[in-house]
Write a structure and sequence with these properties.
70 residues; alpha+beta; 1 helix
Amino acid sequence: RRRLWKAVGKLQGNDLAGFLKIKLRDTDIRVVYKFIRTEILVVVIGARADDEVYEMAQHRAKKEENRYSD
């Protein structure tokens, strides 16, 4: 049985440790998200374009980390 999600970790110089990803195979869409306490933080939903999705995810994750660090 295959699981739907996979850990992202470090990918092409982007540090997304603690984040998970789901890839919708037919559309090549990726969802990058993280569980924070009782919430799910979705940082990006997009089609892959040479790791652009993961670069965008790291940028947005850094922006949001201050909101959840308290």
